[in-house]
TrEMBL record:
Belongs to the class-III pyridoxal-phosphate-dependent aminotransferase family. This is Aspartate aminotransferase family protein. GO terms for molecular function: transaminase activity. Coiled coil: none annotated. It comes from the Bacteria. Keywords: Aminotransferase, Pyridoxal phosphate, Transferase. It comes from Shewanella inventionis. The lineage of its organism: Bacteria, Pseudomonadati, Pseudomonadota, Gammaproteobacteria, Alteromonadales. Its cofactor is pyridoxal 5'-phosphate.
Length: 425
């Protein structure tokens, strides 16, 4: 049922006028697991998951209870001023969960971008070098250093002035767009030949599955070659698992499926089930390179977010959400592959675990012209979807892993109806 709300459009326009940027057509009233209700009384299935933040769903009862309990004790002290157990407990958990058979240390922050910034700072302190190699269509955030590492995924850096001269751009392997693993490795060798000595490079940073760039997964063989290259030249390998981490890909971190370990791993998003928490976990000897006080921040590892993260980690175990991620991924892949057979514009169905996307092409070219139409049509049918990709032609699914099968199937049926309407209109 739709409530009449005459002031709503005016309020949205006023919000834009007040400078809060792009306003989504849905204004949220409340949300639970994979369902969102808007202020007009409409109900939606959430296949966007707050951009990979809601692997355990909106307001998981355990997360809600843990945060409420923490709120009854204290909300903030700043960990650098007064310590608290939950910060340490989260670090211990992450030291255990992040892949790598070596002693580790963890530091906590607030956003994914901050995690990336701090990973680079640690790598620089450890190597005493400044350069960083990042990849085409890699996305690492929107603060200044993270933005410099972000590739041409969207015009995020437009109008922001010159980006850091210490960032060097390598090709990410993507067979679909004609870049082989050999091409990608050669692009790094070209950097060493033309732009910077390996001894100038502190770190290579990449997402094991590119998120904003279009859900392209690195292969274990490529990761192994990067690991060797880093080992040969004393370069720190940073896995940016902000989007892939916290169980989305069927293992707690995607690197577990890559056969090698990174020196530093970033995490954020779903780690705290909707509360702002991020961090880096790295080899103890690498992490120890930075001076005390070189890491941190007023809200880093907020007690509320730490309580949420501990609950999220428990929920993963209790509800066996890693296995669930693989089940959800298989369900999505199979249904979307059936749709691919019906709609020639769906050129690819891909992803790892439950991080699944389709890529739209027409006449051999990326077809971003359909993306906004698909999102709007799906929305009008009660489904929230997201697009991404360097060409804007990728539609991705990041449904909560806790969503019941029937709801995932209902969402997929809406996708099918949406494609039918958009591609045949
Ligand atoms: N790194 C990756 C891989 C991401 O996907 C994102 C966000 O989408 C970020 C970093 C930045 O995280 P945040 O938006 O929390 O700053």
């Amino acid at each position: 049922m739709t409530k009449t709300n005459d002031g709503l459009m005016a309020r949205r326009q006023a919000a834009v006028a007040q400078g809060v940027g792009q306003i989504h057509p849905i204004f949220t009233e409340r949300a639970e697991n994979a369902t969102v209700w808007d202020v007009e009384g409409r109900e939606y299935i959430d296949f966007a998951g707050g951009i990979a933040v809601l692997n355990t769903g909106h307001l998981h009862p355990k997360v809600k209870a843990a945060v409420a309990e923490q709120l009854n004790a204290f909300s903030h002290t700043c960990f650098m001023v007064l310590g608290y157990e939950s910060y340490i407990a989260v670090c211990e958990k992450l030291n255990h969960l992040v892949p790598g058979d070596f002693a580790k240390k963890t530091a906590l922050f607030t956003s994914g971008s901050e995690a990336v910034e701090n990973a680079v700072k640690v790598a620089r302190a450890y190597t005493k070098r400044a350069g960083v190699i990042a990849f085409t269509s890699g996305y690492h955030g929107r603060t200044m250093a993270a933005l410099a590492l972000t590739g041409k995924v969207a015009p995020y850096s437009k109008g922001m002035g010159l980006m850091s001269a210490n960032v060097f751009r390598a090709e990410f392997p993507c067979e679909m767009h004609g870049v082989s693993e050999d091409d990608a490795i050669e692009s790094i060798e070209r950097i060493f030949k033309n732009d910077a000595e390996p001894s100038d490079i502190a770190a290579i940073i990449l997402e094991p599955v590119q998120g904003e760039g279009g859900f392209y997964a690195a292969t274990p063989s490529f990761m192994k070659r990067l690991r060797e290259l880093c080992d040969n030249h004393g370069i720190v390998l940073i896995a940016d698992e902000v989007q892939t981490g916290a169980g989305r890909t069927g293992t707690f971190f995607a690197m577990e499926q890559m056969g090698v370990a990174a020196d530093i791993t970033t995490f954020a998003k779903s780690i705290a089930g909707g509360f702002p928490l991020s961090g880096i976990t790295g080899k103890a000897e690498v992490m120890d390179a930075i001076t005390a006080g070189g890491l941190g921040g007023t809200y880093g590892g907020s007690p509320l977010a730490c309580a949420a993260a501990l609950a999220v980690i428990e929920v993963f175990e209790e509800e066996q959400l890693l296995a669930r991620a693989n089940d959800v991924g298989n369900k999505l892949k199979s249904a979307l592959t059936d749709m691919q057979a019906k709609y020639p514009q769906i050129a690819d169905v891909r992803g790892l675990g439950a991080m699944i996307a389709i890529e739209l092409m027409e006449d051999g070219q990326p077809a971003p012209q359909y993306s906004a139409k698909i999102l709007a049509e799906a929305r009008s049918r009660g489904l929230i979807l997201l697009s991404c990709g360097t060409y804007g032609n990728v539609i991705r699914v990041l449904v909560p892993l806790t969503a019941p099968d029937a709801q995932i199937e209902a969402g997929l049926a809406i996708m099918d109806g949406t494609f039918q309407a958009v591609f045949t209109s």
